[in-house]
User: Fold these one by one.
Assistant:
Number 1:
Amino acid sequence: NLNNKLTLAVFKHNAPFCCGISQCRKTSAYKQLSNETNQCTSHITPTHTLDNISYLKPSWFQMLLRLVLQRFHVYLLSLQAVTALGFKEPTPIQKACVPVGLLGRDLCACAATGTGKTAAFMLPVLERLVYKPKTSQVTRVLVLVPTRELGIQVHSVARQLAQFTSITTCLAVGGLDLKSQEAALRAGPDVLIATPGRLIDHLHNTPSFELSHIEILILDEADRMLDEYFEEQMKEIIRLCSYNRQTMLFSATMSEEVKDLAAVSLKQPIRIFVNSNTDVAPFLRQEFVRIRPHREGDREAVVAALLTRTFQDHVMLFTQTRKQAHRLHILLGLLGLKVGELHGELSQNQRLENLRRFKDEQIDILVATDVAARGLDIDGVKTVINFTMPSTAKHYVHRVGRTARAGRSGRSVSLVGESERKMLKEVVKSAKNTVKARVLPTEVILKFRDLIGKLEKDVGAVMKMEREEREMAASEAKLSVAQKRLEGSAPSSDPQRVWFQTQQERKQSRVSKALQEFDLALRGKKKREKFLKDGKKKELTSEERAQFEILKAQMFAERAAKRERRAKRARAMPEDDTPLKAANQKAGSRGRKSVFDEELTNTSKKSLKQYRAGPSFADRKRLGLDRKRPGGSR
Ligand SMILES: Nc1ncnc2c1ncn2[C@@H]1O[C@H](COP(=O)(O)OP(=O)(O)OP(=O)(O)O)[C@@H](O)[C@H]1O
């Protein structure tokens, strides 16, 4: 009963064998299909996309359809879900990744923000699970994500895509109830979506839960998952995963760590780079507002002006620190705007509630730290504002990627001071469209500066009230525990949870990282003393607050740069450039390779001759030696 459009979609999303249809020269697609081998594993490359299917003659089409329905009827389940989600055409990353994922190949994929990477890994995963039902109650797919909110979102997408199948999913992220997660994990869900910390907690504390049956491991936001923040935890997780797994890495930005991992631990991975590392979403309009020297204190006024006059709803405002996010939340609220906040200082319930209110359009502005910068797919975000430039170009790409998603347009406005011009230059350099400057009239900024000055007292009062409330809640909690103990109704104390590092090691690694960061950013004793003194001051000026934001970003950037400079690990195989890049490389640019690389990797006849025993032809000529080898026949 399928109409033509629908059947076409079956192939577009699901046919793993289409790679052989028009481009495979070794065996014709007809042979493959009639032999029912139907998977052209030896020829699949990123360029064999599902586009080919559009050019099929009707007879081919009919035959393929029959085969799909006979042997791959399960595909219809995904198709139903995809149709229910309103996806008409697969996005380029989905076209490229679905067939490769279906074949069980390792994958390293990079595509701009908001281009549908979640479905690109979920669709093949679900298909494979349905096609090969499990024999025992074990978890077979693990998706790792860096933030709790992203975990919840990926889990929801997975559930939607699996809605017509019997595949079970489970979410194990921090901040949510441990006990119910333990119960769900014991049931052996097919797909587990987790954040690293909570996953390790379960691995060590939930009896009978293990990763030895994991068939597919997916790292969403792979570069973040493999950066130093998660380094130890990822090592532990990968150690506990089954060796014979398929691994897929996805992100809008890739890093050396990802490339290292791809080179060393993936098995013949296919690299699919739909976009380059620093590409922003295609329909994003990028703007910046210049903050003049010694005018850093105007940032709040500029933001207030932008939000009250120009960008009034569906706005995400990013700050570097939780403190600044919270302050702006209070300030903008006092200015009469409908605003919410999202950062690590809040409880998980508060985080989720604020996110829900923003999604449901109950609030117009969400002030957030980088915890909301990656992966979050919030429908209809029109504008992203950066209070200060983020620490690295990658952070910028992810932050501005919260708008202009799924083919829609959007705008980003970044406030750029003197010390952030370098970052702006980087953004301009990699931008495909012009980055525009936005100018605000001075009188408007002055007006808002005055207004904020007048509100300063109220901001202080709100903060004081919050502090008191927190203290009261904490003492009430203590009191109630003590009371329960006295009555004998309180549980004696929860059994100690085990972690793969001791408490001491964990604390030490955190402290040493923080100190290193601090040292890097504050070279020089004087600067350090001033910083410490300022930090202790309760009342900072707006200028000092802005400087602190920038300093925080610089601390991170310097640390990232230091890591980049660190000697790289030996790789299992030389890392090629992407095929396209390699093909485009001009002969001249090869000269940039070090002599060492050149000698080791050049396998041309000429270069091999050079290393044969005896002097080269050129040397022989120079030394006036006979061309014939001694003992050679005349
Ligand atoms: N084939 C499709 N057709 C239409 N919309 C799609 C399609 N695939 C995904 N989408 C929609 O595009 C949006 C972005 O998808 P998704 O969150 O997977 O992007 P992403 O590439 O993972 O982004 P990020 O890099 O920010 O994590 C979602 O709202 C999703 O529903």
Note: Residues 58-273 form a domain with the Rossmann fold fold (CATH 3.40.50.300).
Number 2:
Amino acid sequence: MPDLSKMKKPDVKLVFLGDMNVGKTSLLHRYMERKFKDTISTVGGAFFLKQWGPYNISIWDTAGREQFHGLGSMYCRGAAAIILTYDVTNWQSLVELEERFLSLTDTANHDCIYALVGNKADLTDSKAHLCQDSDGLPEDRTECEEGRTETHVLSASPTPPASPTSLSDMLLHKQVAREDAVALYGRILRYKGLDEKSSLPADKMCFETSAKTGYNVDVLFETLFDLAVPAILRKRQENQASPTVDLEDWRQVSGKRGKSSCC
Ligand SMILES: Nc1nc2c(ncn2[C@@H]2O[C@H](COP(=O)(O)OP(=O)(O)OP(=O)(O)O)[C@@H](O)[C@H]2O)c(=O)[nH]1
Ligand SMILES: [Mg+2]
């Protein structure tokens, strides 16, 4: 039986959501382990604990596969920040955020923060300079270049598709422009009933990252940690006012001593 008294109780929860294959797990590995390593498609969900100053933050990685969709709203329950992740080389992964994942966030805190993250920025044509790791050192150039050749960009006036299959194929490979993510951020705020003027601006909350090179990964996590601090302080104040056992938080750590765990 693990010694529960020695476990860190998370102060706040951050949740990654997004379609399969967009790189959620890879972003977490890059930030927590400073590595880009092989992944297998996530089953259910997994969480990592991060000490941020005096605060303990749990970061939840969820499965993007359709078969696990039902679990998403459970993971979002009580979340202080939700990171909606797409693949910048896959237009459909942005569409899925709005169509499939946004409604899962209904269980998040009323003051939850939303970030949009376009991962795999190393695969876009315009980002050749991004092939560096998070320490600013050049990474394996060949790998970056190989990746880029896989990218397919739709021209401004695409030739009409010959069949529905080719349309979905084109959408799959169409790159996502930053403005499209910014427009979606605006729609997310409207969906949440939030006023754009008094919410965090799209400029600050729409990120492009590369788990492979490390580009913008630290900025993403550390911006979110900083933004989550007021929610932690509010929660601590509420707990002091009416001390109760938070079963959700307790469940997250019970039986799990390590830095990360799956469930
Ligand atoms: N080029 C490139 N490939 C990436 C990047 N991030 C992830 N990948 C690759 O994309 C694939 C999927 O990555 P995962 O991190 O497993 O994706 P996921 O979103 O966790 O997928 P699910 O667990 O199925 O929801 C893997 O082959 C990764 O190596 C990136 O920034 N650049
Ligand atoms: Mg995963």
Note: The chain has one domain: 4-260.
Number 3:
Amino acid sequence: MKGLRSAGGAEPERPADAVAFHGLSAGYPGRLALRGVTAAFPRGRTTAVLGPNGSGKSTLLGVAAGAIVPLSGSVARAGSTRPAFVVQRSAVADALPITVEETVAMGRWAHRRPWQRLTARDRAVVAECLARMGLEGLADRRLGDLSGGQRQRALVAQGLAQESDLLLLDEPTAGLDLDAQDRISTTLAEACERGTTVVHATHDLADAARADHCLILKDGRVLAQGPPATALTGDTVRESWGLTGLL
Ligand SMILES: Nc1ncnc2c1ncn2[C@@H]1O[C@H](COP(=O)(O)OP(=O)(O)OP(=O)(O)O)[C@@H](O)[C@H]1O
């Protein structure tokens, strides 16, 4: 991934896209999960990535995060910081012997080495992110001892603590109670207002309708993309999920 520069070379361009994929194919041994995806995450906006189970949403986020190497095609990343990637809570082992506070503090590893002591500013960021997710009272609890929703909030707090200009989240509000959903939605909207590009995979159509941009996948290909008003129509939803007569 690389930053983009203007033809004149003096000033870096401010490209419209935080990440642009061109003809991207990616997957796992013996399984192609993305097939010729040409799409973009607009810079400083929220993008909702939608599609049925197995359509390639997590894989696309993994490629944007640099965790999955494309098989072919290109990925251009315009930002200057390492992307923050909030995985699904099921991807985190129950037996991890770390506390909630330590989990959130790991977000600061993007700024210093794991063995380096946290600075006063690091500690202030960790405390603020714990508070934003309503986790102050759980800071000393083991991550693996938390409920699913509490654990999810800890992972989102870790992503926020990274203070990246690109925040990628894999179904951050799935299975959460209304208060936790509201906290996360509000926090992500605030991050976007501060200029962060926010991209989240979701199965929640109402959530997606509030995003600035939608990207709908089906069988590893782009079915539709654009503002919700044009991309998230009855036709695209029916076609993507193969629904008959429900919408
Ligand atoms: N670690 C893996 N090894 C092999 N195949 C995988 C792996 N992870 C995902 N896949 C396969 O890649 C394809 C895309 O999966 P992906 O997780 O990207 O879909 P998704 O849209 O995020 O699904 P969901 O809504 O269920 O989270 C699926 O066919 C899936 O079975």
Note: The mean pLDDT is 88.
